[in-house]
Amino acid sequence: MKTMDLLDSFENIRNEYIMEAQDMKKHYGRKSPASRVKFMLLAAIIAVSLLLVTAFAAMNYLGMQEVTQSTPYAVPSEAAPYIETQSAQETTAEGWSCTMLESLFDSASFTISVGISGGDKYVVVPEYCSAGDDVSEIGLPRGQTLGDYAAQQGKTLLYVGAGIQDRDKLGIATTTLFYESQSDSEMTIVETGQKSANVSVTEGTCSVSAWVDGQKDVTRVELPFTVKEAAGDVLVYKAEGDNEVAGIRTNSFRVYQSPAGNSIVFDQEYAMGEYTEALQELKRMDIDGITYSEGGSMENEEGKPETRWSDVKGTFGDTLTLRFINWDNEVMGSVIFHRQK
Amino acid sequence: MEDTQIVDLFFSRDQQAIQQTDKKYGRLCYQIAWNILSSREDAEESVSDTYLSAWNSIPPTRPVFLAAFLAKITRHISLDRWRKNSAGKRGGGEAAIALEELEECISGGSDPEAQLRAKELRGALNRFLDGLPQRERVLFVSRYWYLRSVKQMAEETGLSESSVKTQLFRTREKLRRFLDKEGLL
Lengths: 341, 185
Hints:
The complex is a heterodimer.
Chain A: H1 3-9, H2 15-20, H3 33-48, H4 64-68, E1 84-85, E2 89-91, E3 97-105, E4 109-117, E5 122-126, H5 146-153, E6 156-164, H6 167-170, E7 172-183, E8 186-195, E9 203-212, E10 219-226, E11 234-240, E12 244-245, E13 248-256, E14 262-270, E15 282-287, E16 290-291, E17 294-299, E18 305-314, E19 319-326, E20 331-339
Parallel strand pairs in A: 5-6
Antiparallel strand pairs in A: 1-3, 2-3, 3-4, 4-8, 6-9, 7-8, 9-10, 11-13, 11-20, 12-13, 13-14, 14-18, 15-19, 16-18, 17-18, 19-20
Chain B: H1 3-11, H2 16-37, H3 40-57, H4 66-86, H5 93-102, H6 112-130, H7 134-144, H8 150-157, H9 161-181
Helix pairs in contact in B: 1-2, 2-3, 2-4, 2-5, 3-4, 7-9, 8-9
């Protein structure tokens, strides 16, 4: 079979899947421009704050705050006291090692970090790389392939990945990964995302996988970590009057307050019982005086739309107005919510 | 205008059909063609050819999903044009990069048996996509059907580029294992 046959074969996939992927934003989060500015400011504050620099003994691994600081998923400084330092570590027969570094959980989100060291044998690269990729993938100046660089150093490429396990048990809905090289042989992987507020566990497992260039066998190491939620208050808001806009009804929303970052989960349903094109007109939702770094809509297990905002900042008064904005930045409609006592 | 009304215009051989199609789906078709060809002139020609092909196909065909129907034609025409432009060598655009990525899913070779297996692949791909979580499927289809760039996908989803690459890598690994299990490698 030729690769072109495979690419051609995609032509005949189901129409539903073609339609489904037409608008990626419908399935994934969006960032509000206002919050980007806030994050840039926050990143600047973090950059000059020596208090926030985390050093991990023996290795030069960066922590989750440093890795995420210039991203929309920055771990806020307020969360520092709630970051749990972990200790699980394992050295493999191939000569590479991995260390569970940190975990940070609250009722609606999680972040973990894990460090991987190739010692003096391996150049550590993300699992999605190949030997022909440029060395800039691991933060070195452009102009050489990873394969050539490893050969020049007398080392072998080690492809690495990591991911939190038992996603159902932890109620994990979305995840984002960051790979940050500290040197050609040391890398921190940070996984962050949203989780269900209805799940509460005390421990989790991170699976680290790696394989040596030219070999097919993948070595997997499971590193346990503790989960201690930085819990706070939950505010409940319920809709008043007509609550249907853009083909969805927004019945209520919950504000989960946490030092690790506030989040909002909206309880919604399709007005017609199923997804309609009216929803395609919706660009974003907003509430006056409230910013958020990531908004996302997805269907939950019951086939209902569910929108989540994370890193929510602002004042949560007794009455809040949720506005629905279309792609021309016009208000399609709004719903008024009252805080429940 | 509703899709059914546009299709009715095609059936009544009213040239408004092309104008209304362009108004509603011109941008979608152009984006697909651009992703593959990376050339404004070639992309515009592919979109024009798409409308001509739709004009010749409707009737007798009455597409249920007009957007998907047009998108498929655009993709097919654009990939053909890309193949001709490349003339056997790898050209630019996302098609070339996507091909390189997909190489890891297959065994290579082009014997007649493999040609037959390529036909079976069509059904297998749908079964594979059926089994993927929705978000993973959207990401995979965006890359290998719409041939969107990783950068574009990262911007649209809010994920980091490395996260998009990682998820695509993992799905390609799943596809490779699935094709192997189905005896299609």
